[in-house]
Every structure is written in C-alpha cells, then in structure tokens.
C-alpha cells in the first residue's frame, strides 16, 4: 500500500489523482477536514467521476509531529511519498520550519526504517541545492552553503539529511528538487499568486528569475522514479529557466489581461522589506517580504535538468507554455472564488 503525506497540498493532491486513476488505493494524511476540499477541487479538474476516485483514498488525520497517529498511518504501508511540509519565508517561522520539516521528516524516516518500507520519495526544493559556480547552471552536486540560504532552505536541506539517513539504514530513497511549481487549485498561496497577480493586472514584476516546472511534471517524475530501480539519488526538476517578467507576461496574455510594465528594482524592494518589517512589528501581521527574500531576488540561478533523463529515459517535460495555458483556463472558471 502507498502512503502520501501532505495529501491536501499542491503536489500531494495532484499525486493522489495520478495514483488513483492508475488503479491504486493510497492512504493519505491530512491535518484538518477543511483542507480535503482542496484535493476534491483538484480532482474535479480531471474527471467528472472525481467523487468516486476521491473516495478510493483512505484518509488519515495526522500530524508529522504526532508519532502515535503517524504510526497508525504506516500500518500495512510499503511505499511512501513524503510531500508534507511547511513553506514559509517569514523569519520568525524559523523554529517552526525546523520543527515541522526536519523533526517531522525525522519521525517519518524512523517509521520507514521500523516498517522496512520498500521505497521512499521525498519532495524537497531547489532551495536545498547549492549555489551556482560562475555562469554554470546549478547541478545536484553543487556544494551546499547554509550562509546564503533562507530558513526554509535550511529546513529542507536538513530534512534531506534525514532521508539520506534512511538510505543508509537500508531504505531505497529518491529526492526530487523542484523549481517553482506551477499548477492549478491553490490560487491565493504559493505560486498561485503569480496567476492571481496577473489577473489583477499588476503593473510591477519581480527582477531576475529562477527555475519553473509544472506540477504534472513533478508528479510524473516522482511516480516514474518510485516505479524504477533508481535509488539513493536526487533530481532537479526544472522545466524552464525563466525571468519573472517572462512568466508574468505569459500569464497575463493567457488570462487576457494587461501585461506588467515596471520592474521592481532591488533598491525598491529593500525599502519595501523595511516597511513591511515595521508594519509587522507594529501590527503583529505576517511578513510579506523579508531581507533574505530580497537577497534571493537580487540574483538569477539557472538549473541543469539533464540528470532525470539520464536515469529515466522515457521521462519528458511537458511544454510549459501549454501547461500554464491550461492552468489559466481553470483559473478563469473560478473568477468568483
């Protein structure tokens, strides 16, 4: 039996669809019943019989830090997809990131070892990949530099160390390091905000760029890796190295909206993060922009995606523009959300 943690997130929900339509009856973890609606909505994008397929999932209410509940979720499990994580670039969430992403993965790895799981797949991030060397694209082997990363990146890197521990304890493991994942269903958080900003006809766009990939590409790679003999390897999943401007213009056009015209300069962002800090300090509101986030936006890193094709010869990235066009069509159907 297959266990998917984080079944109500962007990757988890699309992964579950892939698994159930292939005939599997996976078990998936969730934290609150309200979150289940997100997965149901994702299923509705694919098939009119989504209710029946959704009911093929065995849902378990479980927190990665609740070892007793997690232990029950592992009963009868042979394969584990670990997609649950806290994603935050809020500086004051640093300890929480370590608690959820690192300690949570530590607990999961211990149970994988105790239950002699056949294979583990962990969803990490390009944030946990080392910096580029000169003008060369970033590869999986690039050296990690903790001093140049965010709290989120530190937590994902440390979680990877737990997965490597599992591999040393006899659990075949694979790690995927996706770029910015573009996909439908979560429009007001994460990468969904790119679609929302384009729809609102934002006049500004972010400087520089990064690696982007569709959620379907991420899920496809995960399933193929788990079904293969590949073990104890990590893979960068980036379809295109794009500037934020290119992405924003593309989404605006696909949503039939005006394209952004003004770049947010780094000096402007440095002012904005300070203003955001003051607002957060005075009102207690969550930060929307941090000093480190601005530092990241001040540089462009390109990623080498060739390794996945070396190990999975039939893997092919979908055309990203075609994927975003489909995502935008789904977005437009939900304009009244």
TrEMBL record:
It comes from the Bacteria. It holds the Pfam family Epimerase. Gene3D superfamilies: NAD(P)-binding Rossmann-like Domain. Residues 2-234 form the NAD-dependent epimerase/dehydratase domain. This is NAD-dependent epimerase/dehydratase family protein. It comes from Croceitalea vernalis. The lineage of its organism: Bacteria, Pseudomonadati, Bacteroidota, Flavobacteriia, Flavobacteriales.
């Amino acid at each position: 039996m297959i266990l998917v943690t984080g079944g109500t997130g962007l990757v988890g929900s699309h992964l579950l669809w892939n698994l159930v339509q292939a005939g599997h009856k996976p078990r998936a973890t969730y934290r609150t019943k309200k979150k289940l609606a997100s997965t149901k909505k994702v299923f509705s994008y694919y098939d009119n019989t989504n209710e029946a397929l959704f009911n093929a999932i065995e849902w378990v209410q479980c927190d990665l830090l609740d070892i007793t509940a997690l232990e029950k979720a592992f009963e009868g499990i042979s394969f584990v997809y670990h997609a649950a994580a806290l994603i935050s670039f809020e500086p004051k969430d640093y300890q929480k990131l370590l608690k959820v992403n690192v300690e949570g993965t530590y607990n999961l790895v211990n149970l994988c070892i105790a239950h002699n799981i056949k294979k583990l797949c962990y969803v990490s991030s390009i944030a946990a990949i080392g910096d580029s060397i000169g003008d060369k694209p970033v590869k999986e082997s690039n050296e990690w530099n903790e001093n140049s990363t965010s709290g989120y990146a530190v937590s994902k890197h440390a979680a990877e160390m737990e997965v490597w521990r599992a591999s040393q304890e006899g659990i075949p493991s694979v790690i995927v390091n996706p770029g910015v994942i573009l996909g439908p269903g979560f429009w007001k958080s994460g990468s969904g905000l790119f679609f929302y900003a384009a729809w609102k006809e934002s006049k500004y766009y972010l400087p520089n760029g990064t690696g982007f990939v569709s959620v379907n590409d991420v899920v496809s790679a995960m399933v193929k890796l788990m079904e293969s003999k590949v073990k104890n390897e990590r893979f960068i999943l980036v379809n295109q190295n794009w500037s934020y401007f290119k992405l924003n213009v593309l989404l605006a056009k696909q949503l039939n909206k005006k394209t952004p015209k003004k770049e947010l300069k780094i000096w402007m962002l440095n002012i904005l993060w300070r203003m955001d800090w003051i607002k957060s300090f005075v009102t207690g509101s969550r930060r929307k922009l941090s000093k480190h986030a601005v530092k990241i936006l001040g540089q462009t890193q390109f990623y080498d995606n060739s390794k996945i094709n070396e190990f999975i010869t039939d893997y092919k990235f979908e055309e990203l523009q075609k994927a975003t066009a489909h995502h935008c069509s789904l977005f437009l159907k939900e304009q009244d959300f």
